[in-house]
Amino acid sequence: MNLIDYASILIRRGWIMLLLGIIAAGSAFVFSRSLDPVYRATQRVRIEPSRSDFGLVQSAKQLLNSQVSYLDSSLRAAEVIDRLQMDMTPQQLRADVRIAPNLDSLVIQIDAEHKDIGQAALIATEWAQLLIRYRDDQNQQARQEDRIYASPQDNPVIALARPNITINTLVGFIAGVFVGGIIVFVLEYLESAIVRRREDVESIAGLPVLAAVPPSD
To answer: CB–CB of 43/110 below 8 Å?
Structure first.
């Protein structure tokens, strides 16, 4: 098949792909709108050495992973639940929280998701406070020049985590067009042996058609 054949197929059956794409996109849009929104609060905590010499900075970087391990536990989740008076288990809360270090900027990022936008911010903030209080306790046992502090970089940043209606609708459209393309391919395959045009005869026989007898009345 050449490009002209493909273009002919799209002209004749392209509406199937387009129709399925529109139906799938519409279904994805309606389904996404029916879902309850989930918000993500992002709180960043800076880890700051008391002095900027190379040794203490490297120690602070090595400390980041251990601080993440300290925060990412059921014990810390239970503390947040107690302080915020939440009706859930530590395992359920941990499933909605992500904690990750950034070694380059000496920052620990805490992402908390919740259906209530205010509650998401409270969870992220309280989890950050756990680290700040922990660092304060550790600093009490260290010399002033060897202390490493933790402090909020800024207020929590709130964003809609899901559903992403635009992305879901676009994915639905692409999936619909893809399924439509498969259907068109199957239809063309099933009808490939049916002769309708002069070009079909030439393609199958490999010979030019010299004349055609018109059908009798």
So the answer is: yes
Domains of the chain (ranges, CATH numbers): 3-34+165-205 (no CATH), 38-162 (3.30.1890.10)
Give pLDDT tens digits for 129-188: 999 999 899 889 888 888 888 899 999 999 999 999 999 999 999 999 999 999 988 887
DSSP, collapsed to helix, strand or coil, labels residue 61 as helix
In this predicted model, what pLDDT tens digit does every residue of 46-102 receive, in sequence order?
A: 988 888 777 878 888 888 888 999 999 999 999 999 999 999 999 999 999 999 998
Residue listed under structure tokens 């639940």: 81
Neighbouring CB atoms inside 10 A of 22's CB total: 15
Instruction: List phi, psi (to 5°) of 150.
Output: -125, 135
Rounded Cα distance between 100 and 109, Å, is 5
What is the band of 103 on the pLDDT scale with cuts at 50, 70, 90?
A: confident
On whether the CB atoms of residues 128 and 42 are closer than 8 A, the answer is no
Q: How many CB atoms lie within 10 A of CB 123?
A: 28
Alpha carbon distance 91, 35 (integer Å):
23
- Tell me which amino acid residue 159 is: A
